[in-house]
Amino acid sequence: MRRKITMAALGLLALAGCQREMEKLAEFSGHIFVFNYRLSKANYVVTLRPTAALPDGGMAIARFENPRGGAPLVTEAKLYPKMEKIVLESPNLQCVREGRSYEVKIDLADAHGKVLQQLETRVLATIDQSILPANSIVVGPAYDMNPKVFKPGGHIDLTPVQDCPA
Q1: DSSP secondary structure letters along 104-125
Q2: I want to staple 73 with a disulfide (CB 3.0 to 4.6 A). Which of 48, 61, 64, 160 is the partner?
Q3: What is the C-alpha to C-alpha distance for residues 95 and 92, in angstroms, rounded to an integer?
Q4: What is the distance of C-alpha 25 from the center of its chain?
């Protein structure tokens, strides 16, 4: 009986040894908030450096914490085997607060959607979004003054986005 238990234990150890650790396909090379005053928008920008061949037809799926609250903001980027850099940019944000760090989760998946690697980080806001006006100060390809900001009579409305959570 003792021999059967020993053999079963050795078999389980052999099976456990055969399991592969999740392959590291990429690592973080940068993450930052980008504030564009002229267009009055803020975005997360996260870059990854591939450390192995990326799956052809694979996807990078980024989930960015929404500073306004609610569901995460999702961005996807197609992966190619010879990519030298993966750049993921969030949709436009509202209510970014200085001194607060926000969570970013990224899944790297193959062409069939199987997750091959998961990465997580936090991005620290070093500027408060209240420095940006609620409306873009320019519009159009010629960067014309936005009439929502530059009103008749010389009044300029640079009021930031309102109703942000504390």
Answers
A1: EEEEEE-TT--EEEEEEEEEE-
A2: 64
A3: 10
A4: 17
The domain spans of the chain are 22-129
Which of 44, 108, 28 is CA-nearest to residue 76? 108
For residue 7, count CB atoms less than 10 angstroms from its CB and return exposed for 0-12, middle for 13-18, buried for 19 or more: exposed
* pLDDT tens digits, one per residue of 84-112: 999 999 999 999 999 999 999 999 999 99
At position 156, the amino acid (one-letter code) is I
* Position 142, amino acid: A
Cα–Cα dist 62/102, whole Å: 13
The CATH T-level fold of domain 22-129 is Immunoglobulin-like (2.60.40)
Residue 38: pLDDT band by 50, 70, 90 thresholds? very high
Q: How far is CA 52 from CA 18, 24, 71, 83, 133, in A?
A: 21, 7, 31, 10, 42
C-alpha span between 149 and 156 (Å, rounded): 5
Q: Which residues pair with 89 in a beta bridge?
A: 45
- The tokens for 62 are 């980024």
* 104 touches 80 (CB < 8 A): no
